[in-house]
Structures are given as C-alpha cells and as structure tokens.
Amino acid sequence: AQTVTQSQPEMSVQEAETVTLSCTYDTSESDYYLFWYKQPPSRQMILVIRQEAYKQQNATENRFSVNFQKAAKSFSLKISDSQLGDAAMYFCAYLSYNQGGKLIFGQGTELSVKP
Amino acid sequence: NAGVTQTPKFQVLKTGQSMTLQCAQDMNHEYMSWYRQDPGMGLRLIHYSVGAGITDQGEVPNGYNVSRSTTEDFPLRLLSAAPSQTSVYFCASSITGTKNQPQHFGDGTRLSIL
User: Fold this and answer.
1) Average pLDDT for consecutive 10-residue bins of chain B (114 residues)?
2) What is the DSSP string of chain B?
3) Per the CB < 8 Å rule, is B108 touching A105?
4) Which residues of chain B make contact with A53, given a CB cutoff of 8 A?
5) Distance from CA of B80 to the nearest CA of A (A)
6) In A, which residues are within 8 Å of B31 by CB distance?
C-alpha cells in the first residue's frame, strides 16, 4: 500500500521570503501522480500544483514549484515570495495511475506567514 | 456551475442516530469519493465510486454506507453514529479517463457526534 508522509506539522516564513515544505511517499508503482493541495481556514481544498511521475521536469505554477526526486520518493513544495494569503494547511497527495479517484494524503503542514 | 455541493455544512448528532450526508456534482464526473479529515491525520478515503452503480471501500469504510444510483449524486450514510465519527467530511469528484486530473472538492461537512 502507498503511504505519504509530511514530517513538518508546522512551518513559518517571513513575508516575501521562500519556504520549502517536505513530502515523502512510498510506493512500488512506477506510474503515478503527485499533488499539493492548499486548505485555508475556509476549509476549501485548492489544488496548488501537480506532477506526473513519468515527467522528469519539475512542475511550476507562478510562485509555486516542486522538487520531484523520483528515486528518493521525495516531492517538496517551494513557495517563493511568500504572501499573507499563502497561510494555510498544505497537503501532499498521491494518486495511483491505475486507481483514479483514490487520493492518499499526507498528514498536512500548517504554514504561517509573518508580516 | 456549482461544482461539488455538500449538504449540510454542519450537523450535530446523538450517538446511535442515523443520517445521510449529501453530495452532488454537475460536471458529469464519473469518479466520486468521500474523505474524512481528522486533526494530524490528513484526509482519509472512506468510500469511492468509479461510475453509477459501482462503489468500493477506501481506507476507513467501517460505519459508513454509500450508493451511486446516478452520476450526479453520491450520498454517504451513517447508520448508527458513534463519537469516533466526529470529523469533517469531504466529497470529491474527478473526470474519468484522464487520471491526472485533480479532484474537485466540496466545501466539507463538519459533523459532531455527542
């Protein structure tokens, strides 16, 4: 069975600085997808960024980028130029290639942004 | 376009009561799922469906039932509520065929069992 681990329950960053959230996963599959979701206090689950395992190039979405290390099974999220609106719970999630609809989530990292 | 709609948003039950959490999507998505979110544990999959008439168990299915009679609706039933089922429940849907498409989440239902 696949597992996802986020070892940082809480992180803090100064506004305009850069922060990296860690995520590791365990799987025996070679094809899969990885996601980062943001959950602000409103409780909405908002997709931040996605990565296909077969793509070597790291995904980027504006100020958000990932460092995908397939051999190490690591999928970290880097937030550049942090903004107050980035404060939220962030979840790393794994999706099996053959099991659409079954996301496996990490425990979450609560990010606070200091003005 | 409403997306994924969950009702109710909040509910308080007594132990032993039954209730149904409603979930509806208007995007013609075939995949639908129910998750529960507990502090320090992230979201865990309860049940999921890959299409009308097809359901399967997730990681934590005990105490919950689901059915999928239409593409749009995927209700979650608690037959006899227990305090351990106090949680925030999320319904999600995604398009079939392109498995890397993200799931669309509802706004969640906060359920308290006394």
Assistant:
1) 89 96 94 92 91 92 96 96 96 73 88 96
2) ---EEEE-SEEEE-TT--EEEEEEESS--SEEEEEEEETTTEEEEEEEEEETTEEEE-SS-TTEEE--SSSSB--EEESS--GGG-EEEEEEEE-SS-TTSPPEE---EEEEE-
3) no
4) none
5) 26
6) 100-101
